[in-house]
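Supplementary Text 2. Reproducibility record for the structural model of the 307-residue chain.

All settings were left at their defaults, and a single model was retained for analysis rather than an ensemble. We include the record here because the model underlies the residue-level annotations in Supplementary Table 4.
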Amino acid sequence: MSAIKEALATIHTSVELSMKEAGMKPVIPEGIEKDEAPIASGANGVGHVIEYRGENAAAKIEHFDTKLNFSLSEEKDEDGNFINFDLVSVSLLDADNYDRSDISYISGEISDTIMAKYCKPDPATQKVKAPKTVSKAAARSGSVYYDANTLANRLTASLYPEYRAEYNANINRYGEFLPEEFFSRGCSDAIIATIKQNDPAKMKKLFTLLNEIYLDATNETQSLIVVSILGKMDNDQTLLANCVDYMCDDLLKPVIQVNKILGGSSGKSLKEKLANPPAYKPKKQKRPGMMERMMNASAQQQNNTRK
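Retained model, structure tokens:
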């Protein structure tokens, strides 16, 4: 895949949720596999384009030369095809000279535009308050352990800001943070992309965070790091070699072991389970205990007496 296609694929991953919230789905070009980014050739085979369509609106992300255009349309012709796209923004995206911050900025601008225009919040709907994160001081003291929410919060705050919107959406969607569902939506793939790139500065920053969290984490969070995230290296020896000098010994041993298992005969079924986390089931409301029921009944009786 060319550098510009990789950049466009990352942008697509970052904005897809916003497009979905706005009722728009990607247009899958002919010949593109299900797990590939829906990138088509531009007009007359020049440049690249990603299209999204919904019932009432459509969007285009078009790249040519060093420019990326984002446009929208709400007008259809007699055949129901969207026409007269209005240019919303123009960004510079040079295939030979861009970094993650450029992709994050472009993705954020597109997502913000879509959310502001088509996903205006219902005043009656209040956002769920984000769970509290565990501080470094608290984790080091041993009074509490790092949890999955803290891991995702810190990853999206400092390393992968393009997934911050999905992190917040996850909490608002379910009323709590569901780590497996969140990481299956692309953040773990972004981590593997960092490992493939093997940039020393980025690798040091990534594994400084992962090592710190792992050493003082709950068992659930340790499993999340080792299996759901770093297990996606799929026993690729080149990727594992990239990580060796950055992982602490406590993390290195289980990561190598898990990758061997996933790369073995039983690995296929295990990877399918990782790719398809269980459907969300709301927590059951606890029934009040005997003492609580008696107190409620007593309070109700007193209220009736006052009346």
